[in-house]
Amino acid sequence: MAFTPQFLDEIRARVPLSDVIGRRVRLIRKGREHSALCPFHNEKTPSFTVSDDKGFFHCFGCGAHGDVIGFVMRDEGLAFPEAVEKLAGEAGLEVPKETPRDRARAEEQLSLYAVMEVAAKFFESELGADSGAAAGAYLKGRGLKGETIKGFRLGYAPDSKSALKSALIGKNISPAMLVTAGLLIEPEGGGAVYDRFRNRVMFPIQDRRGRVIAFGGRALGEAQAKYLNSPETPVFHKGTVLYGMHLARGAARKSGRIIAVEGYMDVIALHQGGLVETVAPLGTALTELQMEEMWRLVDAPILCFDGDNAGRKAAARAGERALPRLKSGKSLLFASLPMGQDPDSLIGEGGKAAIEEVLAGAEPLSEQIWKLAGGGGDLATPESRAALNRRLNLYLEQIPDDDLKFYFRRHYKNRLFEPFVKSHLKRGPRLEPRRRPRDDEKLLPQHGLGKRGEGNSARRERTILQTILNFPALLIEFHEEIERLPLLAARYRAFRDALLAADVDGIALDKSKISYVLTQAGLEKLLDELVGGDAAYLDWAAKADAASLDDARVQLRHALDLHHRLIDMEKFRREAEDALAGDMSEENLQRLMESGRAVNESPGTEVQIPGYGENDNTESGRS
Predict the structure, then answer these.
(1) Residue 59 to residue 35: CA distance in whole angstroms
(2) Region at 453 (left for phi over 0; alpha for psi -120 to 50; beta for the rest)
(3) The whole model's pTM is what?
(4) CB of 102 within 8 A of CB of 96?
């Protein structure tokens, strides 16, 4: 089976070589590369090198060499098609079924790469000719150095409808191939084909491997379009390509960041100024596929669009388009340029330091969505907060990752209540209960369930509150579950509700602020009973001086799970009582007895954590 070059390139791009080899041998990073003991021959000194930037491995001992596909073939003894199919599965790609038409298309693509290379060399040579003097003067007037012009392979398309056509046909390239490559235009009404690019500074567009796949042209004289790009072709799909990526990839891996700007000149100016990790979309809004391309290199690409209304709209569109593709650990940052500035002009006036200052102030995606939803206005009233919350939720519903969606909502919940909390703390009134008892709380007895002491449920409720008070960071992690948790003891419910009211704007992270809010709510006596100097602890892992945060987290998860189980068992017991009242049968009586026994024999709060002493389960051992 044959595979297209594009498909194989996509596999190489999506599956990092170091990840695959790192599963087989221990890699040691050395600068931009990795070294290891060669997996293909016995050695004591590492001679095996892996380069993600270059996309190959090489052993200086035995001579083994290849890319990620070659490594899998050699390491696992697979044939080429088998290795490709295995890696395609890892990359989430469907292996295409080859047809004769596919083979013909693949051959055409290989031919188009050669055609585009010939065209690029023609434009480069024209820039150095007398006819390209005006184009050269334009580029130097924009502050570009000779090595920059050469590095980006800039050129010039003569002011002629047949200059390129004549030059390339003279090299035995057919007019039909030039039309397919997007270099010539075939009139709709018939007639002779002619050059697409005329009297323009030419910017070769290269794929991630550096192959020329298209061109952008900037008009020097009067023209209907200032910038003109190649049309879509078998080798060029502009929504998937980022200008400058072939040069930026290595720098992005090294610096840990990648910067997206709007235009060719912005990319070139920033590269020349030392910011080689810069790319740009091709005259269109940043697409989801282009974001994916950047996310393969870094977790949070920086968007640095022009400081005008169009640039701000482009950033807003990018933020919206990112939401359906977001995953935990992946995001975007937004750097705002001064009004009227673009990266090219800013670095020209203030140098690299001016750009770095803007990049350092980049805001997260959450801030961009907040602004898109209309945040930043007056949030003094419940109505304004509710309206903003509704608009925010419309955006957040697009996020597919449930964990990520949860933390976005927590973040915005904090911000929505920020004005309320700050004014509330300033005035210091008593906090009112945040909600009425839940229906399941009304149906259950307002005291502990179970037969031990104050009841297993009350013991566990006490432990849950003590754990949160001594480890406030857990309140953020478990906030919504604790808010929904049925608590049977009325005094613990009131305490829990006041505690949740404290957990806005991150206040729960500070014990002193928790104490202040609960005292203002008139709950200082219960606070002292729970965590004061004479407090009795029913479980060691709830004590701040006895357990670590990880221990407390395990204990809290355990206590919450047991509490849910006990509540479910009590509901089952109530259902059994109702069934017996309606039908005094032996079966219903047995059901009631079993349910009551299950409630009374339910476990307490204890959790066994490996590595912590003997975990004595007596209350005296935990106080």
Answers:
(1) 9
(2) left
(3) 0.59
(4) yes
